[in-house]
Amino acid sequence: MANGTGPQAALRRRNLSRVLHAVATGDKSRAAVAAEVGLTRATVSTLVDDLIAAGLVSELGAQRPGTVGRPGTALALSARGPAGIGAEVGVDHLAACVVDLRGTVRARATVESRNRGRAAAQTLGELEGLVRQVTEEAVGLGLRPAGLTVAVPGLVGRDHHTVLRAPNLGWKDERTTLTVENEANLGALAELWLSGGETPPGASGTPGTPGTPETPGAPTARTPLTDFIHVSAEIGIGAALVINGGLFRGARGFAGELGHVPVYPDGPRCSCGARGCLEQYAGEEAVLRAAGIAPELPGRLKALRTAAADDDAPALAALEAAGRALGIALSGAVNLLDPQAVVLGGPLSELAPWLLPGVRRELGERVTGGGALVVESRLGRDGVLLGAAYSAIRAVLDDPSEWTAR
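Above: the chain sequence. Below: its structure as tokens.
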């Protein structure tokens, strides 16, 4: 069926998206979808048939026993339809993966790569090789590429083809034909889209007993998260703001540069040129040096976790200091925005048991109302890559008409 450009075509695009999103929230029948989206069963049935013909939806057979009334045919997103491709440029690694409509990873590849100071063209050329590898694997599984997004640790232009500044890579005003996005933004979107959008069971506030947030107005466990600050870190520290279920980019698209918030104004010089930035106290290299671990050591974060778990005094002191610095930097943002939660993602989530006490203590002392809910990401360090891959899937869910017109 042709896309069209008139009011009827626009209405059909909206309704196709509503139906597809309804199916995406869980296996359900045509009747259940119709009840959820407020359309007639006949209209929904026609739209579902179009989505099935396009390979976006599959029929699973009769619904399981216990369904009220005559059981209908359960619908689900197709496992052999469009696929999103995500790629990630880290300071010391490259990665690529493919996810299907359900958000399931179907192919993945990661390599160690020293990208600091390396020419952008060389780094992206190696990355494109990884992308080809996972794409070929996905096509062999019957998937159809829907788009590619590359996560980078730096500021990205509004055209999403220019890396304006990535100091930890040494990139400035690098133009590419690839679609690029800030890694912290993608980590936050993955948290919103793929983690269930809820606070983890047992999440604790500041102060309080685990599983019992005591902060006034703090969400209880299983509360949907639509307003939160997502913090991720590797060499640098980035944050992203999700407000009312959407990413807040700021006037120039640079919102979330938490790593360059001054914590101790008279502190050491940062790569950005300022003094006392958070990255100088809670960035990966700063924490490793304070813990007595060489930043160049392979498996350095694992070594840090092992040292902390073994009650190594320098490691514990370094993580405690990093947690305090992170709490100081976050306190201003929490006071200003009053989010439901602060979510620690990326490699930070693996160090959460040792970072969180310091973070919570500072927030408890500095935030109006006594603190903020601080939780670990369910996606961990995979969040950035998954967010990059799932970006293309969201585009399909939001407008499946291009696929039904094929």
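The radius of gyration is 23 Å.
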